[in-house]
Write a structure and sequence with these properties.
- The chain is an alpha/beta fold.
- It has two domains: 2-94, Rossmann fold; 97-208, UDP N-Acetylglucosamine Acyltransferase, domain 1.
- It contains three helices and 24 strands.
- It has helices spanning 11-26, 58-61, 76-88, and strands spanning 2-7, 30-36, 46-47, 50-54, 67-71, 96-97, 102-103, 108-109, 114-115, 120-121, 126-127, 132-133, 138-139, 144-145, 150-151, 156-157, 162-163, 168-169, 174-175, 180-181, 186-187, 192-193, 201-204, 209-213.
- The chain has an eight-stranded mixed sheet with strand order 6-9-12-15-18-21-23-24, with helices on one face.
- The termini are far apart.
- 41% of the residues are buried.
- The chain binds coenzyme A (COA).
- Residues 134, 152-153, 170-171, 186, 188-190, 204-205 line the site of coenzyme A.
Length: 217
Amino acid sequence: MKKLVILGAGGLARELADAVVDINKNTQAFEVLGYLDDEDELIGQKRLQLPILGTLDWLAEHKSDDLFTIPAVGNGYSREKLSCTVQQYSAPLATIIHPRAIVGSGCSIEAGTFIAAGCVITVSVSLGKCVLVNMNCTIAHDVRVGNYVSIHPGARISGEVSIGDYALIGTQAAILNKCTIGKGAVVAMGAVVAHDVPDYTLVAGNPARAVRKLEKQ
Ligand SMILES: CC(C)(COP(=O)(O)OP(=O)(O)OC[C@H]1O[C@@H](n2cnc3c(N)ncnc32)[C@H](O)[C@@H]1OP(=O)(O)O)[C@@H](O)C(=O)NCCC(=O)NCCS
């Protein structure tokens, strides 16, 4: 069985740990050793019975061929930083797909991605590195999702949509087919997007309108 260390110790990290419990009910896939977190004062505490083992440096002292990691923080830029840091320790990234998510034929999913319970991803969808697809999202045919994208609960992504790196799709947002969501763009909770969204732009409302430009990070 592969060993897994979760990067982060907040709510999403607990949700991911719980998803692994459900995966292991079908097939013993991962032994979760615990969490790593930047905050020293959390070390030794437990979350869902699993310990916060240390900061990322913990990986330097625990190198092992069967030790995998996965970033479990909501911010895509932070997931990128975490995934780059763990590469220094040669700790490969796991991909976690909840057993109650459906992923159809012809999909490709890169390492470090977490797909939560209740998601339906149909056919020929590509998901980049360290993407978060939170619970109950639907992603239709031929959607392209870049790296470090965050798709929050209940989002509805129609066919042939393209989503740029670092973009955030808010809870219950809906995106019309063939739209392009730019790099680093944010689609607000509940927005209904009917047109392309430029890079680093926040849109909100129904129909979604640009609210402001966002800083590149
Ligand atoms: C749109 C969003 C990014 C704005 O965040 P923010 O910049 O911190 O904005 P604020 O909360 O300060 O709100 C600014 C204004 O936008 C409005 N606003 C906030 N969210 C909105 C939304 N989803 N739709 C429409 N208007 C919204 C606020 O009411 C406020 O209006 P006001 O200035 O007239 O009072 C954020 O509200 C959002 O929707 N994030 C997605 C979060 C999400 O899905 N999380 C899932 C976690 S699992």
